[in-house]
Every structure is written in structure tokens, then in C-alpha cells.
Amino acid sequence: MSASNKIAVVGAGIGGFAVASMLADQGHDVTVFDQFDAPRPVGSGLVIQPIGQAVLDCVGAGDLARAKGNFITRMLGHVEPSGRRVLDVHYDRRHGQQRGLAIHRASLLDALFVASKTRDLRLISSAEIVKAGGGMLYAADGQSFGPFDLIIDSAGAGSPLSPIASRPLAYGAIWGTVDWPETDLPPDYLSQCYRRADRMVGVLPIGTLPGDDTPKAAVFWSMPRDGHAAWQERGLDAWRDEATALWPAFAPFADQITAANQMTMARYTHGTLRKPYGDGVVHIGDAAHRASPQLGQGANMALLDALALARAVSVASLDRAPALYAKARRWHVWAFQAMSAAFTPQYQSDSTFLPKLRDYVMFPVSQIPPAPSVLTQIVRGTILPPTGRLTHVGTPNFRENSPASTAV
Predict the structure, then answer these.
(1) Is the N or the C terminus of the chain less surrounded, counting Cβ atoms within 10 Å?
(2) pLDDT digits (tens, 9 = 90+) for 120-151
(3) 40 band by pLDDT with thresholds 50, 70 and 90
(4) Which helix (H) or strand (E) holds 64?
(5) β-pairing, 74-79 with 189-195?
(6) What does pTM read for this prediction?
(7) Which residues form the FAD-binding domain (predicted)?
(8) What tens digit of pLDDT does each residue of 230-273 get?
């Protein structure tokens, strides 16, 4: 184990709490900074893939997350008006042991926050960090903090510390959370419906929220990134009519949306830092790489970044660990960025050709062995070793007694 160091983590989010907990377990002096007065989520539901669940187990948050989340066994999408399947991926058709964990961001963040409180680390809230340099952090109100031996930027897509240049994607989505109603939709499926590639509506059963035992669903509706104002002007009645005409099974979910502010607009960008470190700062999660959520890997990538960085710090000096982390994550990140760039326009774009390619070529081929197995590995996030040569690094303080801690 490396000697104890002073480490700052900017951003009390998924990757931030995960890396802070693992570094605290190694005996480092860790301080987490966040701009809010208390840790809070941004967004609705997401899916933690099996490799991400293993990282949650490493930090002791796995059981808490599973208690609030909902297991997903299949991703199923069809196109209207034909009803033809155009997406069908099983997590583990043969054994049923590998499953995605659908969960609301609030429940996931709560699990990570509770786990972090079992460690000897500090959380400084209401600290809007705007600059870093020379081992120091500088806040918007003029305060400065440090010096630190290492600064970890986990401040997300809006990080002021990240030099990433990303391109905006043509389509985004509105997201909301509703109660799980009486419905024929399977409670263990991510269900989606498409019209060509310019309309996509989906339902994800996400378990329960902190302090609430009512089963919930995340619902989403695809739209151009500049289409939110027009959607608001049309009114909810027009949207509900359109959505339920496209997919009648969506009606009991849409009926619960009675105010426009129940749906939040999410706009996406695509980009990757070629070198996710420099000047004593290392970037993880969305601060290092951004993509469409189409493959459901965003939160998992942040968790894997956290794991790789913590493992790098455990075996190398702080001046070498960032480069070791970047090398360990390079190919896994590259592969999923490439696949996201290739797949997203087939489901979210104005193209008329790509949906036909998806429906009449890509999907039929995807059902011919060994393609289903490859798709399953893509969804699970295991198409390449997620932490490179650090996958088998011994890390006794990463709570290896957890049943899933050796899975990544």
C-alpha cells in the first residue's frame, strides 16, 4: 500500500463517493467537496450493470442499492406501427444469475453516501469549486483549500476543472419518475417503443426511493436537443395523446404526468479526454468522457474509473498513478464510446435510412449466434477487461469479503 496522502475529491456523486471510500480504506486523508448543501442526484433512473454492482460491493453499498433497486433481466424494444422487435437483449438467458440493477439516482447516491459515512473522510458542502492548480482548489466565493497531493475531478459533465471538448448530440430526452401502475409490461424489463428513429418512448422499473416503499418507474421520451420549448408550448394533453397513440401500453404511465416540470430535459454530448490527468488533477466519469446513455453505461463507467484509479493509487506513487489509471481504462472507454457513437443514431436521429438498417439488417443479425452472446457482453460492460491490467491487482482494503468484489 502507498503511504497516506492528502486527496481531494471534487463532486459528491456516484464516482466521487466510490473513489473517496476506496481511497479512505487505503488510509489516505480524503476530503470530498460538493457545490450543494447536501449530496443530491441529478436525473431519474439508470441501470447499474453487473460490473458496476461489483464496484458497489467493493465500497459496501451493494446491498443497500439492491434493497432499493429493481433487477432487470431483459432489454426489449419494438417499432410501431408494425410491432416488430428491433431490440432484444437478455442479461443471462441460460442461468439468470447476471442481471442489471435499475435504480433511481437518489437511491443509488443514498447507498453510496451511507457507505461513505462508515469511513474516516470529510465532506465539505456548499463549496462550488471553480478552479484547481498547484495542488490547490479555489471556490466561487473566494475560498481556497489545500494543498493536496492529488485532486480528483468527479464533478460530472459540467465540471469547470475538465478541459474536455465534446460535441453536442442531435437528440436528447425528457425524463420523469412515476409510480409503477397496473400494467402488462414486465416488471423486470427495460421496455422501449420506437417510430423510426425520431420517436422513442421507454419505461424502466427502478424500485423505490429513499423513505418511500412505492415501486417507481422512470419514463423517457426522445426529442431533438432544441425541442423542449416546443414540447412545452404544445401542452401535456397533446404529448400524452401522441405518446399513447404510438404505444398504448404507455398510457397508465403518461397519465401520471400532470405538470411539465415532472419531466426534465437531458441533453447529451460526446467526447473523451485523450489524457484524463495533468497538473495534479485526474478526471473520472463524465468529467473524462461523455456519451449518449443509449448503452446504459454512464454510471458504470464512473464506478469503473473510480475502481481503476483507487487500484492504481494502491500500487503506484501519486505521480505515476494517474497515468496507470488512464492506461487501464483506455480501451474499455474507447470501445464503449465507439459503440455509442455507432448505435445512437439508429435510435435517436432524423435519419430514415438508419432505422431501416436497424430493423431489417442489424436486428435479424443480432439474433444469430454468437451475436446474442456478444450483445449480452456489451450490455454487461464486459466486452473488454474494464480495468485492463489492474483487473487482478490485489487490493485487500477494498472489502474483498464482499461476494462480488473480485468480479472486476
Answers:
(1) N
(2) 999 999 999 999 999 999 999 999 999 999 99
(3) low
(4) helix 62-68
(5) parallel
(6) 0.93
(7) 253-314
(8) 999 999 999 999 999 999 999 999 999 999 999 999 999 999 99
CA distance 167 to 42: 21
Angle at 24 between CA 19 and CA 30, to 5 degrees: 80
Which position has the higher pLDDT, 389 or 6? 6
Count of beta carbons in the 10 Å neighbourhood of residue 12: 26
Q: Are 204 and 45 in contact (CB under 8 A)?
A: yes
Do residues 344 and 69 touch, judged by C-beta distance below 8 A?
no
Residue 399: per-residue pLDDT: 41
Classified as helix, coil or strand, 30 is strand
Q: What strands lie across the sheet with 269-272, from one edge to the other?
A: 167-168, 269-272, 289-290
What gap in Å lies between CA 157 and CA 340, rounded to an integer? 17
Q: How far apart are CA 197 and CA 217, in angstroms?
A: 23
b/e burial code for range 82-94 (CB count within 10 A of at least 16 → b): eeeebbebbbeee
C-alpha cell at 207: 424500485
Residues in the chain: 408
pLDDT reading at 51 higher than 50: yes
SS3 at position 150: strand
Closest CA to 304 of 287, 328, 323: 328
161 burial type by CB count under 10 A (0-12 exposed, 13-18 middle, 19+ buried) = buried
Could you tell me the residue ranges of all domains in the chain?
6-167+269-380
DSSP class of residue 93?
A: T
Question: Which residue bears the cell 421507454?
Answer: 202
CA 14/CA 23 separation, integer angstroms: 15
Cα–Cα distance measured from residue 82 to residue 78, given in angstroms and rounded to the nearest whole number: 8
How far apart, in whole angstroms, are the C-alpha atoms of residue 154 and residue 32? 10
Looking at residue 318, its pLDDT comes to 92
Q: Hey, how many other C-beta atoms are within 10 angstroms of the C-beta on 125? A: 13
6-167+269-380: CATH class: alpha beta
* DSSP 8-state code for residue 289: E
Residue of 123, 115, 119 lying closest to 56 (CA atoms):
115
Helix (H, G, I), strand (E, B) or coil at 198: coil
Beta strands 136-139 and 144-145, pairing class: antiparallel
How far apart are alpha carbons 337 and 162 in whole angstroms?
18
